[in-house]
């Protein structure tokens, strides 16, 4: 695989931050609170992207060992404190909740350093991160600007914690946390997307989960929204469910097939609360999607490839169908 180097990753990071800053300014945001928010966003995004650059994670883990994980955790926490102070929303309760989010998983990861990947601590950390992203009071934790960026900030913080725990402290192999392009990837990505679409669209129409309703007026925002879906929805979910969960399940069961199917079903059930509980139609379709994402991840050994399929599915759903 031809993996992007640090300069390529920094280019993507600068493009996203600059574009987001210009768009927010155009929407009328400014002042100290806006500057603090943009700085926090930039730092958290930098962590998420920089670890996907060639050699960065290995060099950090090799040079400093597990200590790097706790240093990263401290940086994440201090970034959050700076956000609270800069936006005038500091509260001890908020700081305490995020401190627990950051340092409890790192402590659990440290307690499992002598265990093989797939230890009970690994699954407990994954469950805790998923519960935090799914059910935490994110709008309360990230109140500025009006809670509009709460989900994005929560996801970025969760990814940073997972990187510190599993990449730096646990040093888990086979995650595929990279951005690049490999041999036959075009076939894997296109085949996975097209075959899934041929199965899922008729099924979703049949069970009345979606209706064909193209959003033609929203197509000018296609590129920006697709990039947002890729980096803030597809990428984090592929990291959690494929790079980590499917990885751990395969190693714990000593079967790639068992890990693939189990992770796909769990991915489906993670959507049971979406659009009303219990949403069994969502569970069925998400489980089916998980099979294709998991296949792409295993064939490419990269969450970037499976994230591309994931983002293509979500973007198609968003612009061509209505739930």
Considering the chains and any ligands shown, give keywords for the structure.
323 residues; mainly alpha; two-stranded antiparallel ribbon; 13 helices; 4 strands; 74% helix; globular
Straight-line N-to-C gap: 37 Å
H/E element sequence: EHHHHHHHHEHEHHHHE
What percent of the residues sit in helical stretches (DSSP H or I)?
Answer: over 70%
Beta-strand percentage range = under 5%
> How many domains, in number, for the residues?
2
So what's the overall shape? Answer: globular
What strand order characterises the main sheet?
Answer: 1-2
Question: What would you report as the Rg, rounded to the nearest angstrom?
Answer: 19 Å
**What is the structural class?**
mainly alpha
Low-confidence stretches: none
What's this, in brief?
This protein is 74% helix and 2% strand. By secondary structure, it is mostly helical. The protein has a two-stranded antiparallel ribbon with strand order 1-2.
Describe this structure in words.
It is built from 13 helices and 4 strands. The chain starts with a strand and ends with a strand. The relative contact order is 0.11. The strands form 2 sheets. The protein has a two-stranded antiparallel ribbon with strand order 1-2. A two-stranded antiparallel sheet has the order 3-4. The protein has helices spanning 6-26, 31-50, 56-64, 67-87, 92-111, 120-135, 138-141, 150-169, 185-206, 222-253, 256-269, 280-300, 303-320, and strands spanning 2-3, 180-181, 211-212, 321-322. With 323 residues, it is mainly α. Helix 10 crosses helix 11, helix 10 packs across helix 12 and helix 12 (280-300) packs antiparallel against helix 13. Helices cover 74% and strands 2% of the residues. It folds into 2 domains: 1-173, no CATH class; 183-323, no CATH class. The model has no long low-confidence stretch (mean pLDDT 95). The longest helix is centred in the C-terminal third of the chain and has 32 residues, at 222-253. The protein is globular and about 50 Å long.
